[in-house]
Design goal:
By secondary structure, this protein is an alpha/beta fold. The chain contains 11 helices and 16 strands. Helix 5 packs across helix 6 and helix 8 runs parallel beside helix 9.
């Protein structure tokens, strides 16, 4: 599928990644998702979390030249950084873990092609995302279709292309999928998703907490089923000729930087899946623990401790391997933000400066029409200055505002780098995930931001 007009700026040959390498063959069993730990020897990631090799290095780029070539504002992604972050994560996960890239984080065509070359599976949540990953070269058997509100046409598309797994969110969706599979004469591998909001008793279900609410629905019930409905759905699926129950899915938090909370969630999901498999006498082939691996958006936030994550998951895997019920169970992880967030930046130009009631204001040519996340979740991102005065800031606090006719169009407030000059470039960091894909680009009919892949 071709990207929307203007959504992808095709960079010249020197800005593209080096010659493609063939993806590793998918596994012959299960949902056929690439093993996480098979690429690197044990011993954990060679690079520290947040280290210089795991972040886009804007100082080595000629941002002025990129701005002339693509105009501002634009996104820039370093695919080599993405590859290193994939390698670091693979190196710490046990061999029973599989990676499926969460396409919602960044569905850029070149990013997807890179993930396919690296042998990851794909986590999609719409027919559009499914089409994009097929166009990017992903094997459909390594795709998992997740998310609530799947239309019949989307379920039919997933069945038609033969995705590796479909996560079922409700008893009604289960029956709709069964009917679609029956018409197609197919038997569909499925997971049943457990709700991690509030149980019927009002007590919170298991799952890590979000520092900033992104996915957690606080008991609204949007995601998954309660335990009683899930058990009934499992019994129904096991009696169906069209449904192949492989396991369970549970995920209810995003951008979690607490390794212990992530490990606890994985362990609880496996325990629940094992309990269900024993109760209903089926083989637990897969648990899907979602993504949620977090990154830091400010200097005062501690990064996710990858060493602690490795130790915790390794201990779980060792215990599972000794249990005949879980020894062969695969664990599906769906990272998105962790892999692409620090690999990207949003670059915009200062078009005006002024003082209002004594406060320094810089107006830039890009705003929440391209980068909505700071306003949407109320969490600013780091911003750097690039220009003749970028090294001579007074430390005075500055408000960085976009050009839209709304007071919501604020990229950051109280940024302590002094008033920039008109014409300077500013770069919003950690914008490789939930940037362009989460934007509202049609507001005020302003130009779309280019996406440049290096």
């Amino acid at each position: 599928m071709s990207p929307p007009s203007g959504a992808l700026a095709a960079p010249p040959a020197e800005e593209l990644p080096s010659s493609p390498q063939p993806a590793t063959s998918p596994l012959a069993a299960g949902p056929q998702l690439q093993p996480a730990g098979a690429e690197l020897p044990p011993g954990g990631p060679e690079l520290p979390p947040g280290g210089p090799e795991l972040l886009i290095d804007l100082d080595r780029l000629d941002l002025d030249e990129l701005a002339v070539r693509h105009d501002t504002p634009f996104y820039v992604y370093d695919l080599a950084v993405v590859e290193r972050r994939v390698a670091a994560l693979r190196g710490l996960l046990p061999n029973s873990f599989r990676l499926a890239y969460a396409v919602k984080a960044n569905p850029n065509a070149l990013v997807l092609e890179q993930m396919a070359r690296l042998g990851l599976g794909a986590d999609v949540a719409s027919a559009g995302e499914l089409e994009r990953v097929i166009d990017a070269g992903f094997d459909p058997a390594r795709v998992v279709f997740t998310g609530p509100g799947k239309r019949d046409s989307e379920l039919a598309s997933a069945v038609s292309v033969g995705v590796g797994l479909i996560t079922v969110e409700s008893p009604n969706e289960l029956r709709r999928l069964e009917a679609i599979a029956s018409m197609a004469g197919r038997r569909i591998p499925i997971l049943l998703r457990r709700s991690l909001g509030l149980e019927s008793s009002g007590a919170p279900a298991a799952g890590p907490a979000e520092a900033v609410r992104i996915i957690g629905d606080e008991g609204a019930g949007k995601f998954g089923m309660d335990v009683d409905d899930l058990r009934a759905s499992a019994r129904y699926a096991l009696d169906s000729a069209q449904l192949d129950l492989q396991g369970v899915h549970a995920f209810g938090a995003s951008n979690v930087r607490d390794a212990a909370a992530l490990v606890r969630h994985v362990g609880q999901t496996m325990a629940f899946g094992r309990e269900l498999a024993v109760e209903l006498s089926f083989e637990l082939r897969v648990i899907d623990v979602g993504g949620g691996l977090g990154i830091s958006y400010s200097d005062d936030e501690e990064p996710l401790d990858l060493d602690d994550l490795q130790l915790g998951l390794g201990a779980l895997a060792q215990a599972w391997a000794a249990d005949p019920r879980t020894a062969a169970t695969e664990v599906l992880v769906e990272p998105g933000r962790f892999l692409v967030g620090p690999a990207g930046a949003y670059v915009t130009r200062v078009v005006d400066t002024k003082r209002v009631r004594g406060r320094a204001i810089a107006i830039v040519d890009g705003g929440i029409n391209h980068l909505l996340r700071p306003a949407l979740v109320g969490q600013p991102q780091r911003i750097r200055r690039f220009g003749t005065g970028s090294g001579q800031g007074t430390g005075e606090q500055v408000t960085i505002a976009g050009p839209l006719c709304t007071g919501l169009d604020i990229l950051a407030q109280d940024v302590p780098f002094g008033p920039p000059e008109v014409g300077e470039l500013l770069a919003v960091l950690d914008a490789g995930a939930y940037g362009f894909t989460e934007s509202m680009p049609l507001f005020l009919s302003r130009p779309l931001a280019a996406e440049v892949c290096l």
